[in-house]
Design a protein that fits this description.
Layout (H helix, E strand, L loop, with lengths): L1 H18 L6 E4 L4 H6 L1 H11 L3 E5 L6 H10 L3 E6 L6 H8 L5 H11 L5 H15 L3 E4 L10 H20 L3 E5 L13 H7 L6 E6 H6 L4 H7 L4 E6 L1 E2 L5 E2 L8 H11 L3 E4 L7 H15 L1
Parallel strand pairs: 1-2, 1-10, 2-3, 3-4, 4-5, 5-6, 6-7, 7-10
Antiparallel strand pairs: 8-9
Helix pairs in contact: 1-12, 4-7, 7-8, 11-12
Length: 297
């Protein structure tokens, strides 16, 4: 027990040194508690705030009036720096997927239809309007499906779309981020899509939100990316995984969070969001994650 305490103390000192004397705000990607939001939207926000979270990342405006969502965030002392974009009624895909009324394959098909790269202009117009009402700075393009990265031409087409979307955001005073999963780190047509995206998007207009778990699961090292591309990363997702690649509650898996947080801070990360997909008890997982990460800071 004494060794465990010393280890935690050393980890805390390391993280404090990296983050500075003032603890970095800890956020929550609300997808983690989406099933609860659908049952009791305001009550869930209140519980999140009661735990201690002060920042949240939204899924668009949750299919709701963004002004009403903003009112509830303000009421419970929450701010939202960022949204994962879900234009044109796409939130219903999230709802049906969460309720298991839609297969992952069907969800992907519908997603690709709505998020067609031919519609970048109207997509961004809708998302920018939502973000301004919600008081957000960042808009996140949150997924590239495997079908969209099978060839180099497709990947470069996506890079072009991101550059366009990023420039449209910039003109409105906002910043586009790209969020990864694990598929982008596997070779497609002789290249690593994630690396192609980093190298072929304009640093002035396209930043990145690194999901540290998905990168690690794919065999990539988040520290390498943080160190190689300083200034490209503005946000990150914090989640944990077991040795066999299953998502688990933060602090119960293999991720080295003290080292990871130190590298993230050095890379320029401004916002950190806890996320745990598919938790059996989402609010308990959110509480445990907060307790663990706050002990480090």
């Amino acid at each position: 027990m004494k060794d465990a305490v010393l280890t935690l103390a050393a980890a805390s000192a390391m993280t404090r040194a990296a983050l500075g004397a003032k603890a970095q705000p800890l956020g929550l990607q609300l997808y983690t508690v989406m099933s609860m939001l659908e049952r009791d939207f305001e009550g869930t926000l209140a519980n999140v705030a009661q735990i201690g979270y002060r920042e949240v990342e939204t899924i668009g405006a949750f299919g709701r009036d963004p002004a009403q969502v903003r009112e509830l965030l303000d009421k419970h002392g929450l701010v939202s720096p960022s949204q994962h974009m879900v234009p044109d009624g796409l939130y219903t895909v999230f709802e049906k997927l969460t309720r298991r009324e839609l297969t992952f394959e069907d969800a992907g098909k519908r997603w690709r239809e709505v998020m067609s790269l031919d519609r970048v202009g109207p997509i961004m117009e809708e998302c920018v309007a939502q973000a301004k009402v919600l008081g957000q700075k960042y808009i996140v393009w949150q997924i590239l499906w495997p079908e969209q990265m099978q060839t180099r031409a497709l990947i470069h087409g996506f890079c072009k779309a991101l550059n366009t979307a990023g420039e449209l955001c910039s003109k409105e005073g906002l910043v586009l981020n790209y969020h990864n999963h694990d598929a982008e780190f596997s070779p497609h047509d002789g290249v690593i899509p994630y690396d192609v995206i980093l190298e072929n998007t304009d640093p002035k207009f396209v930043k990145f939100e690194l999901d540290t778990y998905w990168a690690t699961k794919a065999g990539a090292d988040p520290l390498v990316y943080f160190n190689k591309y300083p200034g490209r990363y503005r946000q990150c997702h914090l989640k944990d995984g077991t040795a066999n690649g299953e998502i688990t509650t933060i602090g119960h898996g293999i991720m080295n969070f003290p080292v990871l947080l130190a590298a993230a801070r050095k890379a320029g990360i401004e916002h950190y969001y806890v996320e745990q997909d598919g938790a059996a008890d989402p609010m308990k997982a959110v509480q445990q994650a907060y307790t663990y990460l706050r002990a480090l800071s």
